Amino acid sequence: MSSQLHLNAFLMGVGHHEAAWRHPRTDARNVLRAGYFQELARIAERGKLDSVFFADLLSVGSRIERNTQTTFEPITLLSAMAVATEHIGLIATASTGYNEPYNLARSLASLDRISGGRAGWNIVTSVGADEAANFGYAELPDHAGRYRRAGEFVEVATALWDSWEPDAVVLDAATGIFADPDKVHTVDHVGERFTVRGPLNVPSSAQGRPLLVQAGSSESGKDFAGRWAEAVFTAQRSIPEGQDFYRDVKARAVAAGRDQDEVKILPGIVPFIAESEAAGRRLEREFTELISPEYALRQLSQMVGVDLTGYPLDAPLPPLPPLEKIQGNKSRYQLVKDLASRESLTIGDLIAELGGGRGHRTVAGTPEQIADDLQRWFEAGAADGFNVMPPYLPGGLTDFVDQVVPILQARGLFRTDYTETTLRGHYGLRPHIGRYARVVAGVGG
Amino acid sequence: MSSQLHLNAFLMGVGHHEAAWRHPRTDARNVLRAGYFQELARIAERGKLDSVFFADLLSVGSRIERNTQTTFEPITLLSAMAVATEHIGLIATASTGYNEPYNLARSLASLDRISGGRAGWNIVTSVGADEAANFGYAELPDHAGRYRRAGEFVEVATALWDSWEPDAVVLDAATGIFADPDKVHTVDHVGERFTVRGPLNVPSSAQGRPLLVQAGSSESGKDFAGRWAEAVFTAQRSIPEGQDFYRDVKARAVAAGRDQDEVKILPGIVPFIAESEAAGRRLEREFTELISPEYALRQLSQMVGVDLTGYPLDAPLPPLPPLEKIQGNKSRYQLVKDLASRESLTIGDLIAELGGGRGHRTVAGTPEQIADDLQRWFEAGAADGFNVMPPYLPGGLTDFVDQVVPILQARGLFRTDYTETTLRGHYGLRPHIGRYARVVAGVGG
Ligand SMILES: Cc1cc2nc3c(=O)[nH]c(=O)nc-3n(C[C@H](O)[C@H](O)[C@H](O)COP(=O)(O)O)c2cc1C
Ligand SMILES: Cc1cc2nc3c(=O)[nH]c(=O)nc-3n(C[C@H](O)[C@H](O)[C@H](O)COP(=O)(O)O)c2cc1C
């Protein structure tokens, strides 16, 4: 554990709260404006945050009527944000299920070069049947198969990123040489699902390759994180749970032969920031009251794998299917199930509780209280940093940057200025060197 | 034919000439800088050009040692250029061979929204075996199969772009409605190669959908252009040849039920601009002398389908394989073959002749002479406009914009300011309305 924590701003539409876009503090039309997202990146950069991040889905899902998330593809949008900023990291979610490794590795490498080494990839396997239907699948591929494909996909992508050694480009006009062919390698991958010769057609960036991020919390998900992830987003409700998860993923990283500091654990937090705790709770309630129960019921139905349409809001959840039957997001299912039984919540309670961050922890209070909370988690070894999920935007981000960050800085818990130029650097990692360069330099096998 | 011509700037590395990056007028390091490409877009916009365009390959090809083309993926790069400009169109090449229609349609739609309706797609089937090898193919899929796939691909992509009617997004905070579900349609495509449910998860842009561009000149390529293309890039060596091609593609458009004005024909031109014709020729020669014969021989070998390594430069071409054997770029093969026999060129002559624009027409002279040349082609009905391929960058583009464009404007042949906001608008096309909206409005079937 380092002495300073890391902060990622998870950007979503006009805020993470279910009903954000109906609240007067937001302007829903912003979701259609690239300039708005550039402005969010600049706000986060003003706060010296490590990175901004977009989730992604390959379908409209159930969100045509009621939500405002899917208006841009993340990599193209982050490219526009890259040229509006200088320091902040830019993390795109992209699916291993429905891309070709060559294409995705290349788009991310291109973003990485455009941004000067600030790109990251949140690796997801995609859990929606409606996504599968856009790519020729009659149903969602099963959980184990998705993670097998993800493993092979990341092997190919990382090999492609290594295919250009850091000093391969020579650009020697006198001899006419662009790159040294001895430093550009084919990858010659022949696997179960992919056959890819390489090399990639984008030279490596200042950070060597994009930062690898992951957010699956199932057993396979955590194994995958231990093997590959350099940052992990996760929904954790309490410090003891957070500590368990933290130790668990770090142990898997060590078991995979990595140093435990090479993977940063970032639980989510949805902060309602106000001048008093009571005002924070009032603000949260204002948002809760704007939730459309009908739409929220549909969302909850998806999480628990039971169609809840028509159920009364004051009733408890009906019996749920066993975990093995859940082909989608297993860990979110478990979280909701545990929460409902532990706190004896009705369906209506659950909807309010999940409204802020779909299961992520909501904290309402003064900037000091938020900072105290983050410090507690950090010092308890439950987090290396946080995935900050502003309930409404841009206000919730502006308040965090202008009111919470300065407190963390005053306490020595957060950088007061950028000291590194790349995303890997912000997260305390060295530039990635690549397998071929390592051999040549004799640093390892 | 309209009374004004269209101009596209085909951007490639530090210029189209084979040896551009060895010439003192260029700085080869620019190919690694996104800011350089933003600057090129701003120069083109200063000249009120219709669009800028990037070619693309899904491999490093033979270009690791000797060339500087493949440093960014076009769509991500154009996104960075979109936010540095306000008017100019942004055309990305992307392959129908090695993408999923949902992903590509989405990235282009995202670029289209980021740019406010300025995106275009140069549709290619990809002709390299080294590209195929990055996507699991042991060899290049055959020509006919590639065009069949392209046809189905474009059907799916255009259906996805139509899936959001222009007024589908309502963003009504009071009722909680983001989009009107009756105006967002599934596409339910079930075809030979693709099964895609839709809808797309990006609403339609100000121009309805990206401009469709095409550059294949084989029979299947021209049929495809007639059916789909709104702009066609082509290599034509003389006005009579240009007229034939022009009439041919327009006739195919009409045969496909379209208006002949719906497809603009843009032959390529590589202009060496100088204060006199002699100075223009001297400048061209400077570049020719910097060509690496070894590398140029490899390029020529690819074009003609024969390995010419070791052949003397002063010898004529050996007998070439018949057209049917060429699985790659058939029209470029034909062009080179005709050129060599018609003008009795040696291999060395061919290398010099092709060095400027790989078969595209080179013109050296004063700004007036270049303008005269363009006017002649335009008024002879051999072109609706031109694909301007500066031999070196940025100088060759700056000279064109500052010296040739004003002459065309003074003659009434080119716009003096943008009158439209979208790429389709620049090319004289109305916003695309989409199949569903048409039915509702009763404008057609
Ligand atoms: C903060 C956070 C963000 C996530 N973002 C995405 C996303 O954008 N797209 C997606 O398909 N899944 C997303 N997920 C879900 C997971 O990455 C993962 O796909 C899912 O949990 C299923 O994996 P599991 O069964 O291993 O938990 C996210 C999860 C978390 C905690
Ligand atoms: C100006 C111009 C630009 C082209 N750009 C590309 C390109 O970027 N990528 C590509 O694969 N083919 C490119 N081509 C080739 C064609 O689009 C097409 O794929 C090729 O000619 C094979 O089709 P054909 O056999 O129908 O001619 C280009 C052609 C021209 C004239």
UniProtKB/TrEMBL annotation, chains A, B:
One of its GO terms (molecular function) is oxidoreductase activity, acting on paired donors, with incorporation or reduction of molecular oxygen. SUPFAM superfamilies: Bacterial luciferase-like. Residues 32-382 form the Luciferase-like domain. InterPro entries: Diverse_substr_monoxygenases, Luciferase-like_dom, Luciferase-like_sf, NTA_MOA. The keyword Oxidoreductase applies. NCBIfam families: FMN_nitrolo (TIGR03860). This is LLM class flavin-dependent oxidoreductase.
